């Protein structure tokens, strides 16, 4: 029977197959032609071709027969998210099924839209795919035959090439094909890890970072951890910092960050207060002997100064005022500085001990230069008072970027900055608190890779992120997202060919994710590996049913809690 009858030519069916034709007849079961291998499972034909997406006609009865196959890939044949292959000349095109509907003529025929993923050569003897690569050079013509991709094919397609990579889990639906991330491509163009609370996001982040640390024991990774979850995961491979040992000198702040901390006024008064602070801060910085030989000193220069000097200069400037000018701005700034100096919660940053020039040491310990086999520093900001958390994150992020800029010409030491709960620091709204941190992280997203700074964003609310940031991430690792706005946001940021995958985001199980973009050769759905107990973050949810059956020792608990609460953790 020929193709014009709307069916498939009988020569291409395998002996076991009866493919129902559009015309209603069945193709006679004929032994396969010699150059075909039994891997070739004919399931349909191409009916419509366009640049990125095309449509194929599938036979429901054949799909039904294949669904009991022992090969997990074949059993999924024809389903949304499954792969199919189409022969063009001596190459195999591989495509992924995006959606399906019944043919208007019914009769067990299904029309499906496919996205082309790439192509590979055909091995002469077995007919399998090898040398798979992204992108399509030749398109099939309508009437070309469509085959189910087997596990052998998927092995070839997903097999990592020679580039440096880390294996993170098994490719769905197989049990043994490994999914890999290409480290250089992933870090070179930033990455984002998304997923609703409870989908295993922190554990996945820990898994990926552990794998990268194993691959690159001399790496430089800075992780901003707002909930104190990750210290438990990196006890042996990381340097752990919190308010007790961070010792972040206040004078490392630039002028904008100083304003966020010391200037409390809003509206029109704010500008006047900032101008006064700029004048006095510059004087305080120039008093340091480091400043003696320098010609160009600005309010942003990271030169140590004494808080007492700054207060004295404010006092002197205030004394020079004539009677008509108000001294209120000076009093406001002085009040705020004195308050922060006296409050023990701010000791990690504003203590008098931090005035020495420790800049090289501080940068060395935070950026792991040298890394001493501990390539990651976890900076737990959960103990930082909430009103300056964003400033602390801003300072750390900016130091990363500034270090990269000023170290050009030196042997390169690229740095990865991982930001958990990223929507807090790069919010979509561009007014209000925390603009310093938003600006610097947006800048790293846009320009970081030129200087060797990579950004990893982890968030459960991609829709709350500032607009351009997600689209700057070359690799997107998405776990289940329950919120529809978030799903829509991720769709918009994903590359074209991954659309079919994106639709399965609400259907992902825990510990399952979809990866697309630069870090993978083609979009994959991966079931992540189990992480050893001691490498997991401390983020498991409380079990109410279990904990609400326990009692005893409440008086002692309360006493200890109140004591810590009153002494602010000291």
TrEMBL record:
InterPro entries: HerA-like (IPR008571), HerA_central (IPR002789), P-loop_NTPase (IPR027417). It comes from the Bacteria. Residues 166-398 form the Helicase HerA central domain. PANTHER family: HELICASE MJ1565-RELATED. This is DUF87 domain-containing protein. It comes from Sphingopyxis soli. The lineage of its organism: Bacteria, Pseudomonadati, Pseudomonadota, Alphaproteobacteria, Sphingomonadales.
